[in-house]
Amino acid sequence: MLSYIWFTFLYQPLFNALVWLYVNVAHQNLGWAVVWLTIFLRVLLLPFTIISYRDVGRQEKAQLEALKAARAYQGDLVAQKEIIRDIMRKNRISPWAKVLTLGVQLLVLVLLYQVFVRGITGEKVIKILYPSIDFPGKINTEFYGFDIGARHDFIWAGAAALYLFISIMFASRHRKHWDGASAVYVVLFPLATFFALWLLPMVKSLFILTTMIFSDTISVLKALLFPAKKT
């Protein structure tokens, strides 16, 4: 039952979407089909991304209010907790939008892995394709000289890890002091990402890199269109 639901409602639709993009949008380049699939996915999730950004702003505001409340009620822990609880309730902070966005991306990541593990050539393609989707023939998995189905790719795994490192450093550019845990995170998280992507097919690196670039693009647009108010 679960395998039927997984295949019919998740794997097969994504597979057909990927093949449709490959034939109609990506000029028979599977790498670009994955890029376009990632972009379309992020566009569909954009309302939830906007909500999560809004919640970040609310959380920052709530933290400032909670800090002031903690100072005002230093001698009364009960009142302090009650005020902080009211602040959180007033700002309506909920992580569900961010969790949903990350969850869907993780699901697609798993589905893409299955696509490349099961194979995307031969009779398997014909059996999985919807009647309305044209059979693509032999699928081109070359992406600028790289096979997106190949594992142990240093270049793309390294590019994704390096981009992640730069993004973390840029987001922390205003930080004046680094504690040990933060410094370790900045180094180990990109390294762990590199190792994980190196073990997986190159398509994973392409997906992760595309979604990170999309997220940063949205962040830049948000900063330009809705600059933070100076307090």
Explain how this protein is built.
This protein is mainly alpha-helical and 231 residues long. The chain has helices at 2-24, 30-44, 46-72, 77-91, 96-118, 123-128, 154-171, 180-199, 202-225, and strands at 142-143, 146-147. The chain has a domain at 2-145. The protein has a two-stranded antiparallel sheet with strand order 1-2. A hairpin with a 2-residue loop joins strand 1 and strand 2. Helix 3 packs antiparallel against helix 4 (77-91). It is elongated, with a radius of gyration of 22 Å. The protein starts with a helix and ends in a 6-residue tail after the last helix. The mean pLDDT is 84.
Key features of this structure:
two-stranded antiparallel sheet; 9 helices; 2% strand; 2 strands
Weakly predicted, low-confidence segments: none
Which descriptor suits the 3D outline? elongated
Distance between the termini: 55 Å
Helical residues, percent: over 70%
Strand content: under 5%
Q: Number of helical segments?
A: 9
Q: What order do the strands of the largest sheet run in, or round the barrel if closed?
A: 1-2
Residue-averaged pLDDT: 84
- Secondary-structure-derived class: mainly alpha
What's the alpha carbon Rg, rounded to whole Å?
22 Å
